[in-house]
Amino acid sequence: MSIEVNGKTYETDEEGYLANLNDWTPEVGAAMAAADDCELTDAHWEVINFLREYYEEYQIAPAVRVLTKAIGKKLGKDKGNSKYLYQLFPYGPAKQACKYAGLPKPTGCV
Amino acid sequence: MSEENDGKKFMFVNRRAPYGTIYAQESLEVVLIAAALEQDVSLLFIDDGVFQLTKGQNTEGVGMKNFSPAYAALGDYDVSKLYVEKESLEERGLTLDDLQHLTWEDEDDDWAEKDSIRLVSRDEVKKLIEEQDVLLSF
User: Fold this and answer.
1) What is the pTM of this model?
2) What is the ipTM of this complex?
3) Which residues of A touch B25 (CB under 8 A)?
């Protein structure tokens, strides 16, 4: 599978996750979201950028429970809860946000 | 301790060097899955497995991803028991200072930061192994 952004083609796996981490740009993330009928707001980007920083530091995409806790610690309790995160990413915060962030599917996600 | 959790006690035994084979990386992957499923997970590092926790790993030239930063995320996954066998460290000329400083936050103690790595003797390792429900050796 692949996704086309501004005339450039990017390879993805069968679930739409970017094959090559280094291909990612914000435009690619936005195009992936658009394909899911999801328009990314600042609130979405806050989570996406957080995931990219987490991956940069630990080299893994965190499981949803870990993501929720870590967001709460960094951005406050009103954001570090399932309700808030599922409103932003109804397909599952870790799964869906990792995809737009160009990261692999989180470990432990079935 | 086990009353808090209906799950079984899982111990992952790591006894190989981090690179050259895929065992160490695969072990860590399964640890993260077990921890995400909220099982009672501990890790044991013996023999060359103690090299997995060393600081400053650089894999340029071996053609494998340096996955060692992920050990620092184990605390986020509530994995707080990383047992390292003292004798294995000593036999390789290593000390605790050669290993990453890994911590976890204790929810029951006002989120105090505590060390995850616990040095244990060969005799203590035997006892720990006997306490487990499931042992997975990598």
Assistant:
1) 0.89
2) 0.84
3) none
